[in-house]
Specification:
Its cofactor is FAD. This protein is of the alpha+beta class. The chain has helices spanning 11-15, 17-27, 37-40, 64-76, 129-136, 155-161, 168-171, 205-209, 243-255, 268-278, 298-314, 326-337, 339-343, 362-376, 404-421, 440-443, 446-459; strands spanning 33-34, 57-59, 80-84, 100-104, 111-115, 120-123, 141-142, 178-184, 190-194, 218-225, 227-228, 232-240, 262-267, 288-296, 319-322, 349-352, 380-385, 393-397. The protein has five domains: 11-104, Uridine Diphospho-n-acetylenolpyruvylglucosamine Reductase, domain 2; 111-228, 2-Layer Sandwich (Uridine Diphospho-n-acetylenolpyruvylglucosamine Reductase, domain 3), CATH 3.30.465; 232-341, Alpha-Beta Plaits, CATH 3.30.70.2190; 347-435, Alpha-Beta Plaits, CATH 3.30.70.2740; 446-498, no CATH class.
């Protein structure tokens, strides 16, 4: 059994279910409201499939006006709302609530404009990540952030979680590639932030919204930066006898001033799973594998390849293969991109973690994970963005074995505590969601958390948007900042008060 607890369903809302559904059907007619139990089953979980919950009702709007009216109705009638994109969240960010409307944005799936002179694309939030690249690649452009789920994940969900991917080391996360948003607040108000210009005036509300996990508003349009495809891109596939040597190689490459387009690492269990799945030609005798991509002008790429090969050999690399053409480069990446489903073939279930650490701490953290694996008696396969220290340990377990899910959760929590202990953070790109919610006090004290909740209150005073996510304990907005009076005396009585 999982130790995860979600907010208790509001009895008053549950009693009004039929009236709520009837009102929503007047706003989103036809097949836009799904309320039958069996039909809602497809929405009961996201990619964190260990947890499932049927929503109160599912609504699939098609226009901004419908989104606005749905949110306004829910705000006026105190009904909770959980926004959802493609449902690929690995942190439970789109997990439904029993007493909440699940607002699914998948029908917002149009590319509205491609502006090559300004190098931007304007898209609806239901467009897939890869769909943007497919729309512009014939002109030699692409969209840089590329999560492993890019064939399915939506750009709106990428904004909510500030997703990264293989190439985020050089080209940045979603936050570095989004220029503008249209979004709807819980009150129903439609606002715009940023645009095609490179910077915005005033407070950085665009940065605030990117990574806000559906707690502040619902995105209805996104303006993203598109880049010209590099003239040359080549990849190295480098094997090491130990993970520590591979980790040291990563640190030395960055220290040498080299910023690869992507630098990924897999350990032995992940290598074998990916090779069995994709047959990419990975060396099976090594303990760790680095895939390093260098891009730019061909002369520069050739020079950097020689530098990286030298650094790899100095760190004890036992194998080193350089791609000779585009097809071979794509084969190198095929196994890494398919690593998550590949690991799914060797274990009935797994939890995918998402901590981020300073690069120099890779050897220490990898050694710590091996010790934890022995302690909990569960296997772990490591697949991660080595260049920026974003770890994705896959904890293998069997949900049919009593208590194994609880053990996997405890194992994952200890990994994340270790990440924070060495100077890292709880999440790199998957978000906090419900998975890391109860670990927030490991990284933040009460003052930190209350300040974050104040931001939430500024946008959603009633806490109707995606409740039960991110914050380990909700406070009513009116309770924040209340002064404690003990025995009739205020704290610090000499401080002037206004």
């Amino acid at each position: 059994m999982s130790g995860l607890l979600m907010p208790k369903a509001d009895d008053a809302t549950m009693a009004r279910r039929e009236a709520i559904i009837a009102a929503l059907k007047t706003i989103v007619p036809g097949e836009g409201v799904v309320d039958a139990t069996n039909a809602m089953r497809v929405f009961e979980s996201d990619a964190l499939t260990a947890y499932r919950q049927l929503p109160l009702v599912v609504v699939l709007p098609q226009t901004v006006a419908q989104v606005s009216q749905v949110l306004k109705y829910c705000h006026e009638n105190n009904v909770k709302v959980v926004p959802r994109g493609s449902g690929t969240s690995l942190s439970g960010g789109a997990l439904p609530l029993e007493d909440a409307v699940l607002l699914v944005m998948s029908r917002f799936n149009q590319i509205l404009e491609i502006d090559y002179p300004n190098r931007v694309a304007v898209v609806q939030p239901g467009v897939t990540n890869l769909g943007i690249t497919k729309a512009v690649e014939h002109e030699g452009f692409y969209y840089a952030p590329d999560p492993s789920s890019q064939i399915a994940c939506s750009i709106g969900g990428n904004v909510a979680e500030n997703s990264g991917g293989v190439h985020c080391l050089k080209y940045g996360l979603t936050a570095n590639n989004v220029l503008g948003l249209e979004m709807v607040l819980i009150s129903g108000e439609v606002i715009r932030l940023g645009g095609k210009h490179l910077d915005t005036e005033g407070y950085d509300l665009l940065g605030l919204m990117t990574g806000s996990e559906g707690l502040l508003g619902v995105v209805t349009e996104v303006t993203v930066r598109i880049l010209q495809k590099p003239t040359t891109a080549r990849a190295l596939m480098v094997g090491f006898p130990t993970s520590e040597q591979a980790g040291k190689c990563v640190a030395d490459i960055i220290a040498a001033g080299i910023i690869p387009g992507g630098m990924e690492m897999m350990d032995r269990p992940a290598i074998h799973a990916a090779e069995d799945f994709v047959h990419a030609g990975y060396p099976l005798e090594v303990e760790a594998l680095l895939i390093i991509e260098l891009d730019g002008p061909s002369v520069e790429v050739d020079h950097l390849i020689n530098m990286v090969e030298t650094i790899a050999r100095e760190n004890g690399a036992s194998t080193c293969v350089v791609s000779q053409n585009e097809e071979e480069r794509m084969v190198f990446w095929a196994g890494r991109k398919a690593a998550f489903p590949a690991v799914g073939r060797i274990s009935p279930d797994y939890l995918c973690m998402d901590g981020t650490i300073p690069r120099k701490e890779l050897p220490k953290v990898l050694a710590g994970m091996r010790r934890l694996s022995e302690t909990y008696g569960l296997r772990v396969a490591n697949v991660f963005h080595a260049g920026d220290g974003n770890l994705h340990p896959l904890i293998l377990y069997d949900a049919n074995v009593p208590e194994e899910l609880a053990k996997a959760e405890a194992f994952g929590a200890d990994i994340l505590r270790l990440c924070v202990e060495v100077g890292g953070v709880l999440t790199g790109e998957h978000g906090v969601g419900v998975e890391k919610r109860d670990l927030m006090p490991v990284m933040f004290n009460d003052v930190d958390l209350n300040q974050q909740i104040r931001v939430k209150c500024a946008f959603d005073e009633k806490h109707l948007l995606n409740p039960g996510k991110v914050f380990p304990q909700l406070h009513r907005c009116a309770e924040l900042g209340r002064m404690h009076v003990h025995r009739g005396k205020l704290p610090f009585p000499d401080i002037p008060r206004f």
